[in-house]
Structures are given as structure tokens and as C-alpha cells.
Amino acid sequence: MPNTFITASHWRNRYLLMRHGHSQANQAGIIISSPEQGLNGYGLSPNGEQQLAEVVSGWAWPVPTRIVHSDFLRTTQTAARVATHFGLPLIAEQGLRERFFGAFDTQPDTCYAKVWAQDAVSAEHRWQGVEAVSQVAARMCTVIDGWEARAQDETILLVSHGDPLQILLTALSKKPLTQHRDQTALAPASITPWP
To answer: Which PANTHER family match (predicted)?
Structure first.
């Protein structure tokens, strides 16, 4: 994974890494990770809508100049709330999509723990058709590399999902990808600045 800019000591842009607000999938306690399920279904829950209203009204981070988001419904709706508040266009980016959980898609979210146990052993595993941690890291880092190559002095809000963002933060911190669950869990609608 040749991340030219990610390994550089100087960053050309600032990033705000945002997890989508509480979703209908969170509310139902199920895993929604495939485009077939997530692109047009399982958007924000009423709780998520309230979270976003509070986040934008009490915005405590640098004002974004660009908003880039996973094209899943829950991330698109999250990004749209921020975009409307700041009068910015949305840029959909498939590289920010949810990690695909294979056979566990549409299953109870208690199944996450089974996958994470495998993650701690190997960042390359594809057990039960799950997308490898290394693959998630590569596509997430490629998104940032792209912005580092073509933009400068921007504040870019990246709206994605819990697992991909924790994997990205692990990669950015230059820690072994098998340790991504050691990252503090990202709450719905939370924002983590980088660098």
C-alpha cells in the first residue's frame, strides 16, 4: 500500500474524521455492510437526527472547506446535515464505505466480536467473506492520499463508518493493523481531527 503522503512528515490538509450519526441499523442491532443493503436503506435513526442537530449547532472544530462521504445512506444523510449548515456541496467517495462483513451482513451486531477476534490475529484474513483489515486500510488511505495530492490548506470532513475509521486511525498512527480495536471506539456522530 504505497501511501506517499500518509508517510510524509508534513500534511498539506487538515482532516476531520466523522462517524455517521446513530442509524436505523444501530437501532435494530444488526450489521448493514453491503451496498445492496446500505446504499438505499438503514439511514439515520431519530436519535441520529438529534445527534446531528446538536453537532452542527454546537460545532467545535475548524469549519470544513470540503465534505467527502461514504455513499451509504446513513453517511450521506450525516454529511448532508453538515453540508447544509455550512453551505457546502457533497462529494461521494466509495473508498469511505463500510467494511464488508461477508456472511455476517444483516446478522445481529453481536457478530462483530467474532470478526474482531480474527482481526487481532491477522489483518489479511477474509474469514466468512469479511473484507480484510488491510484492504480497508488501503482504500481509506488512498482517499486521503488523493486529497493530499490535489489539494492544499483545506479542512476536509471525511464521513465514514466506525470500523473503517478505527482502521484508518490505526494506519495513520503507524500501529499494526491487528490492533485497530485498541483504538478508542468512535461514538456515532463523533469527530476526530487529524493530524
So the answer is: PHOSPHOGLYCERATE MUTASE FAMILY PROTEIN (PTHR47821)
